[in-house]
Amino acid sequence: MPHTLRSFLESIDNRVLHIHDPVDPVRQVGYLCSESRGPLMFHNLDGFDGWRLTDILIKDRQGQAAALGLDDIKQVCPFLAGQMANGAGGSKMVKDAPVHEVVMTGDDADIRHIPIPIHSKGDAGRYLGSGVTITRDPETGIRNESILRMQLTDDPHRAPFWMAARHNYSHYLKYVAMDKPMPMAFAIGLHPVYEIMANWSGRHDTFDELEYAAGVLGETVELVKCRTIDLEVPAHAEIVIEGMVHPTARMPEGPFGEFTTLGTGAEGPAPVFTVTAITHRKDPIFRHMQATWFTDHQPLITLPMEAAYYNRLKETHGNSNIIDVFVPPWASQFMMIVQMEAKWDGQVGDVLMSALSGPNLHVKTVIAVDEDVDIYNAEDVLWAIACRCNPETDVWVHPGSRLHPLDVSIPQRGDEYTVMRVGGKMAIDATRPPTWRKEERAKLGRVDPMGKGDAAIERLLELVRQPR
């Protein structure tokens, strides 16, 4: 059986909160999703009969572990890193696909009939933020996938969208140079691993992110030809929006509340997606990703980043002991915490430099901590900075670095580009001295409260830990 959104929802059904009360998907689900601590399924969407909406599927490590088929949440990053190191899987074409159970073209292909919400107050309109965007390099024929924001307007068939200067943008520039429209599709409602790997930022000269995700899942992804454009899309998606991007067309786009929880950053004239068809299952599930606050949007980007950097940082000095890597959602993807055991002087600094010079533009601040610090606990990380870091020697700033185009705290270079911001990066060494300097390392060792590790008080520990 292929891995689909539905197969994943079945596997976590004991955690899903099913809401049958009527809700307005356009104006109400944004806040409901932002406040949820677990998976949601809305069954009664005002104005959208026959549709369901789901979100908050992999917000936490428990959901991410479920997506990867793991029981131990501490293995999420190392496991994904190992699977990614094995390389891509395969793909195959099929003739019949669930996503083609309903096909709408022409005037019937009205994107306003999909329950696409307004994410945040102040947004320019309804925004699709959960579509896995598929394009193809016109020279090599290799596809690329990413998750882009697309703004709905009064025009039912034309929508501006925003691209960072990455792989799909390079495809677009090649079509612009040829003065030809670019085929593009938005696939909505995939197994979360396909969504996760769509956000991977490394090179892929012979495969695309769909095939990379298939490798992680140990399967061959099934693809189907689009009905109106020359492109292949996942056969088991819930919804696919097909269309073309004209090389010179522009429309105003933004503002939009991004993952930074700020409403500014890249608004301006943007390329235009012209809808040629909408296909979906007979009983479609709209996969929503609330962009702001601590929802699925953040880990979908940070999880492949964590795994890629886990592999990258382990190569420092040949074989550094990297235990875990975490990009916390509460830092809007711009901070990375590396848990490691340093054996030699200079090792932490080199790991930090490797992290700051990695493939993602997000990483602005990197903090290194020891194995006894809980990197998922912000209080513990701040304790390490407070008690194991000498700012005079253990903090350094690297100026003149290119940073993420949506990081509005960094000045923008030029008015004609919305993708160029240049500023500083910061490294913080909050680790103890390396293991070979045992006496100095011991001085910064943490003390444990008396009784820790006593099996006789395990039952009492459960009682005292309960919230009151």
Describe this entry's structure for a reader.
By secondary structure, the protein is of the alpha+beta class. The protein has two domains: 5-287, Roll (Pnp Oxidase, Chain A); 315-443, UbiD C-terminal domain-like (3-Layer(aba) Sandwich), CATH 3.40.1670. It contains 13 helices and 21 strands. Strands 5, 6, 7, 8, 9, 10, 11, 14 and 15 form a nine-stranded antiparallel β-sheet that branches. Strands 17-18-19-21-20 form a five-stranded mixed β-sheet, with helices on both faces. A hairpin with a 6-residue loop joins strand 9 (149-151) and strand 10. Helix 4 crosses helix 8 (297-314). The radius of gyration is 23 Å and the shape is globular. The two termini are 45 Å apart. The relative contact order is 0.12. The model has no long low-confidence stretch (mean pLDDT 93).
Q: Which stretches of 5+ consecutive residues score pLDDT under 50?
A: none
- Going by CATH, the architecture of the largest domain would be Roll
Beta-strand percent range:
25-35%
Q: How many strand segments?
A: 21
What is the topological layout?
Blueprint: H1 5-11, E1 17-19, H2 29-35, E2 40-42, E3 52-55, H3 61-68, H4 76-85, E4 90-93, E5 102-105, E6 127-128, E7 132-136, E8 143-147, E9 149-151, E10 158-162, H5 167-178, E11 182-188, H6 192-197, H7 209-217, E12 220-225, E13 232-234, E14 239-253, E15 268-280, E16 285-287, H8 297-314, E17 321-326, E18 335-341, H9 347-356, E19 365-369, H10 378-388, H11 391-394, E20 395-403, E21 421-429, H12 438-443, H13 458-464
Parallel strand pairs: 1-2, 3-16, 4-12, 18-19, 19-21
Antiparallel strand pairs: 2-3, 5-15, 6-9, 7-8, 7-11, 9-10, 10-15, 11-14, 12-13, 14-15, 17-18, 20-21
Helix pairs in contact: 4-8
